[in-house]
Design the sequence.
């Protein structure tokens, strides 16, 4: 079965209540832009499932900005290499979350 990685771009608030440990978590109650990498059986947007994954990572008040398929070959570009770990983590575990200012 072919897997698709879909990126969900959002803004959300970190609650500190995460089922997934963070090396360096954001400050509790702080809002951040986020990118959620999700491995799916198809490339269709599933915002309800993505919202549940965001909550698993400790994020609420999720406002999705956009979603779309991730082009695997783009990971080879210099600009996208920073996301290589998240892409690989997504393939291994089913999802990966990036938060930033």
Sequence:
């Amino acid at each position: 079965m072919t897997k698709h990685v879909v990126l969900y771009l959002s803004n959300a608030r970190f609650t500190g209540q995460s089922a997934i440990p963070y090396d360096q978590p954001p400050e509790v109650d702080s809002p951040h832009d986020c990118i959620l990498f999700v491995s799916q059986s198809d490339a269709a947007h599933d915002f309800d499932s993505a919202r549940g994954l965001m909550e698993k990572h400790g994020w609420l008040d999720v406002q999705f900005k956009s979603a779309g398929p991730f082009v695997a070959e783009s990971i080879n570009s210099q600009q996208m290499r920073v996301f290589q770990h998240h892409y690989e983590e997504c393939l291994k575990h089913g999802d990966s979350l990036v938060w930033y200012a």
The chain has a mean pLDDT of 95. The two ends are 36 Å apart (CA to CA).
